Amino acid sequence: MDLLNDALLLSRLQFAITSIFHILWPLLTVGLSVFLVAVEFMWLKTGDKDYLIHARFWGKLFLLNFGLGVVSGIPLEFEFGTNWAPFSRLTGEFFGNILGYDGAMALMLEAGFLGIMMFGWDRVPAKMHLFATSMVAFGSSLSAFWIMVANGWMHTPSGGHIEAGRYMVDSYKEALLNPNHFLGYAHMWLACLATSLFVVGGISAWYMLHNRHTVLFRKSLGMALAGLLLATPLQILVGDIAGLQLFHTQPAKAAAIEAHWNTNPDSEGAEWNIIAWPDKASQTNSWALSIPHGLSLIVNHSLVGKVVGLKDFVPADQPPAIPLIFYTFRVMIALGFAMTGLALVSAMLWWRRRKTADDSMLPVWLLKCWVAAIPLGYIATECGWVVREVGRQPWAVYGLLRTEHAVSNLPAPAVATSLALFVAIYTLLLVLFLLFARRIIMEGPNINPQLPMYRPISNTNTLLLNKD
Amino acid sequence: MEHQVSDLLINIWGAMLTMILFMYVALDGFDLGVGVLTLLEGDGRKKSLMMHCLSGVWDANETWLVLLGGTLFGAFPLAYAAALQSLYVPIMLMLFALIFRGVAFEFCLYSKKPALWVFAFGVGSLLTIIAQGLALSGLLSGISLIEITGTSALFEWLTPFSLVTVALLITAYSLLGATYLFGKVDGELRQSAAMWTNRIIIALTVLLAIFFILGPINTPFVIERWAQHPFFFGILALLVAIMFLLLQWSLKQERHFDPFILCLVTLFIVLVGLVSSNYPYLIPGVMTLHAAASSTKTLEFMLYAEGGLLPLMLIYNGYQYYVLRGQVTENH
Q1: Which 8-state DSSP code applies to residue B255?
Q2: pTM greater than the 0.95 cutoff
């Protein structure tokens, strides 16, 4: 087995697997916390008990998800040192600094208010509780911000230079606001929000299909739909801009995404491959179905615009696994449009039915689509990350440090062992998470929650004397 | 002059790192300790009561570890890289154990058969402490942290001293856990906590003595340091002894959190002793703070945000404890 002797490949697999698993939980943490702020705000504003029921019910799922996010994420921070020590030495001044910021500003904030949010309903005034929930949401979005600063910098390192084997920052403004960062963050944040709202919407639709608390869950489905109407079209726009930017910042990656091998001559357009089978060994596509001039039009908005092809890079500088990049990108795009379509169709039908007495607002087939859409955001996001990270190869830090030079010099059997354990533990984690999430959902909300000690009554917080 | 500025910054960051380490050991220490103590408690209801004492705070406690890792990575990247790579085995063990106990805790809240998860939480906590003990002894024993090239080097950190350190950490964390429980619960469980505390103090006194005798075998500069400042280190040792006596006395009083606070003070004194014995080394005998540190510019930039936020973090973490204060009782 060659694989078991290749410490580089094993370390790469280990990092890939731990991050592929880990990201499942923060996706929901970031988005669901925003949703929880919204329902709690509605509870304070309207005094409608349904919103309190929602806050408590989705909060249960949130807590389970949050805990798994914390524990599954800790290994990532330490793997930079254990498996990527040369990377850590080179980049520590900036990359490590940013991870420190993430811990100090963001992670600490969300964890510092989580307990109050979950267990403080009877212990703090209503507005203070809303503040705690908001801090959890703000903290998790801020954490995503710093992670995307660090990760974006690996794609477009800027604002510094290498001196005596270490990356020294000259301009923090340039390094923090590296070209990749803003779009990367916007894209990821919207992915978190959309994924979470499809989870909320899908679970709500499931209850409505089973005629459980239909009126209650119509509210959450409606809120999810309203959010998605904004988020999904915006996501397509942001994704498009981010994709086009790649042709300037990471042309080899962009060419791999489109299986585009030859730079088009001056007077000819580059074709866009709808589907193809890129073959790195022969440096061409085995077959392709393509639209003439398509890529030139997409990238340069002109029929003959020049698009750099993969062959402009020697094979050692081209990303590996080009079919993987090519197809995960297409899956992401297809799912993005499917989710946007679902949101638009649902909004249209909802609007048409707004005056009917029908409780569910949406037809059964569409509710079933919502249930089926629960995993779509996760799959699209994972595909996007595969494109992003595999596409960055062979570089750990684009143009500065090759992945093969970034890896720790560890005996392969040690990494193989830890990799096997990570796979086993994370798989178990996911299975158990799904089982317990299912249990929370099957159990359903407590529709007669004890009202908190402090609750909103005509915009003032009245302390109820709780005599029991 | 540039060099002096950077020395000051390096010392500030050394102090910050010590502070964050203290927070981590104090906070995750008590919940890891409570985890170990659940293995000693036979009564299922009391076990779940012990778990209940940790809900709402363990996530934040564990976050101090993440902050510790990030701070080490940013401020002392060379030490971060060298130490983590050389200690691959104990670090991986710690990560697996942390995952294990974290999820066991979460699943315990939702499970119909919590007993299994409580047990998993206890075992996970114990394994976490063992891994931390192994890593700490590796750092303190002055082994050269070179690139691991062969499988044999994977276990170079393992020495007889490792066992002492592991035993020390298990008892120290358990003491934190027992005194925290003493403050947080009532009734029979509180008496158990008092009993555990009394027993642990004896074990801990012995282990601390062995630890500080065996510790400097490979790091002769520590013994020199002690010889140069006998009064300072003597006073520290005396203070620890006084703290332990006070601790036993305070168990008999009705002030619930006094024992825990005395433990924190003791922990702080021991940490000061450890750090001042090894200063200016970050990895004793191998790498000084200076050799491991980032540039002045980085340290400055990090200090603006992280240094400024540290007091704020302490405040809102403290606020969370304040909000969730009060006794946890069986009929909860």
Answers
A1: -
A2: no
